[in-house]
Amino acid sequence: MDLRAAQHAALTGLAATEAQSSVASANIANAQVPGYTAKTTSLTTTLAGGNATGVSLSSISSYVNENLVRSLVAATSSETYTQTLADYLEALSGAMGSTDSSSTIANRLSSLQTALADLAVTPESASLKYLAVEAAVATADSLNAFSKEVQQQRANADHQLADTIDELNVALEEIDRLNEQITVAKALGQATGDLEDARRVALQTVAEKLDVSYFTTSTGELHVYTKSGQALVDSRAHTLAYEAAGNVSATMEYPSGFDEITLDGQAVTTKLSGGEIGALLELRDETLPAIQDELDALAATLIEEVNAVTSQGTAVPTPQSLTGTTSVSGTTTLSATGTMRLALVDSDGVVSSVTDLDLSSYSTVDDLVTAIDGIGGFSASIDSNGHLVISSDDSTLGVAVNEMDSAVGAAGAGVSAYFGLNGLFTGTSADTIRVRSDLAADSTLLATGTLSSASTLAAGNTGIASGDGSIAEALEDLFGQSVNFAAAGSLGGTSTTFADYASAIVSDVATKSSEATSAAKTADLVAENLRTSLTNESGVNLDEETARLAALENQYAACSQMFAIINEMFEVLLGAVS
Questions:
Q1: Has this prediction a pTM greater than 0.90?
Q2: How many helices (H) and strands (E) does the chain have?
Q3: CA 157, CA 316: separation in Å to the nearest integer?
Q4: Which residues pair with residue 359 across a beta bridge?
Q5: Is 456 part of a structural domain of the chain?
Q6: pLDDT the model gives residue 165
Q7: Which residue(s) pair with 542 in the sheet?
Q8: Is the dihedral of CA 341, 346, 351, 355 positive or negative?
């Protein structure tokens, strides 16, 4: 080998060693960067006339187990899906409290039962009436609050959904941008390892948001699809569009209450699954509405059963006027049978007048109103809200109603229950349940006694006995006995007490939360093990890289010394010929 060839070989050795050192240094510097894979160099011997003339850097590459990556992508979707469910259910379970918490609906109902039991013993006590009404208000407020919490969680999920879709779109556009750079670099024979690392990181971000499938084309492009086959990235990025609802109420349901998630203008909400987006959709449209259904079943049954009892009674002393809470129309057909009793009663419970009406005689609501208005001493009308109003024309006399054997409408409700006279609660759901507004303002209007149903009742007789607590006793009994609940949410149809059903709701949420947390821990463990495996196979081993860098230093020093010796030989030769 002549001196020039030797010099060239030394120079290529220096250049190759410098490049290898640069790669090793980059590996060490990026060891903690998420998604970075260790790069390795490949050297090629350069030849001239069949003889080795030096060395050149042929490529910089990294080894990545694509099967491991594919498993990690799937595990990442499962991890974020289960964790999102766990986070929301844990928050809701915490807001509802444990089954033995004093703030749960079950304990509010138990407090109401206790207040009614005390009232049944001393029904004439104004303070005990107040405490009973306040306990009823607390029960309604508790149902309102938990219903509001469920809807707030739905609203949170809906807004997080919009934010998550924005984050997904950024990752999709990043994959598209990197696709372009990688295909150009491959075409030019340039290294693409760092670009591919960045693209894998973006793919993991996509997987966090959604279940996806993907493949790499022969040109190096990564194509990404939803599990149901909609293209997210092919020759371009296909981004999703969604706008969160301004407010979320208990009556809002998908698809009528929420916008569609669209992809290229097409609705894809039902085609998206897994990841954070799948969990948020499931929470908003299935899991949380099912819990709301359970709360509504409790509230509706409570309203119906309690009002069915209180509507049979009357306040003591009787009020001068009764106003129903059910909206009706005067022209509504009155499909009714049986008898209702109306009486004017003084403050001592003595009857001034009593009238029994045969309800089968009246075809419409207006007919009944006209009949009541035609009774001496009574006035009756339908107010602007559609509520039946029955009043005494004498301020010293109050109005008392006994439903007797009346049955109105398809459900066969008593006439007072049908019109909402003397009811304790108003509303139809956990969101709308309230204590009757006039009763909340004046607890003496709580029905605790009953107008006599005796056939011999006449003016001058006692219509309501002093200390009559029959309705208070019936209410206490109601809260202690089993009532029928239709299937709702995750709870099947059952017969149980109000308090036990409320406890079942809290227990159901707690169970869902516990199961979601357990699933999240399992999914996290699987994903973390896969990350560790991928890091062990493709990540940077600092010990190995440090040792490699030390070896390259020695190699560089040797090439430098060789180059220096050749230069000395050149100088000797030049001196000899000069």
A1: no
A2: 13, 22
A3: 49
A4: none
A5: yes
A6: 97
A7: none
A8: negative
